[in-house]
């Protein structure tokens, strides 16, 4: 059973471009979480999604950031018009529905976004 | 979600037990205690979690006080590969799903030879 897959592993963008980060949850997992980790800082929650629904987006910046988790395919974190301050490691985690035998979040290896 | 308080850092000798404390005095009845660790910029790794009973797995033991206001993560035989930031997190269990994990600053554990 493959773990949480994130790609790309590294992404370089120039200011003003768009960044798309992909996350494929573990098989059977219907919940996805996105976190951001700025250099030398802790992980900050961004958004929590179930299939086709945003459950909690309290950590998402109000502008330029969006996330989706369609019925088919990976979850996408989209950052429009990137700025240097968006440079960070972005981690995705997935979990099964509550009531399953596992109540853990499993994290991917992250996408390191660098904005030039 | 309840907040947690952890010491910013601690050292541990290789082969000895590492005891990591965590205070969560405002924890509520439907909140679980989770421990994760992050090894140098990798994705966080699950260690263990519990509600009120002590828990043990192949990685660690979790001791939760009877009033649930604090807990201790025990790494029984620390190795150099256990050097990481350790996060104690309380997580709410809601009707049909789980709440998010809110990471604090954690404890930087350095295992020395």
Account of the protein in words:
The complex is a heterodimer of chains A (116) and B (113). Chain A contains no helices and eleven strands. Chain A is an all-beta fold and 116 residues long. The N and C termini of chain A lie far apart (36 Å). The mean pLDDT of chain A is 92. Chain B is mostly beta strands and 113 residues long. In chain B, a hairpin with a 2-residue loop joins strand 8 and strand 9 (97-98).
Strand coverage percent of chain B: over 45%
Name the poorly predicted regions of chain B.
none
Give the largest interface.
A-B, 27 and 21 residues
User: What proportion of the residues of chain B is helical, as a percent range?
Assistant: under 10%
Strand content of chain A: over 45%
Question: What number is the mean pLDDT of chain A?
Answer: 92
The count of strands of chain B amounts to: 10
Tell how many strands the DSSP assignment of chain A holds: 11
Rg of chain B computed from alpha carbons, rounded to a whole number of angstroms: 14 Å
Overall average pLDDT of chain B: 92
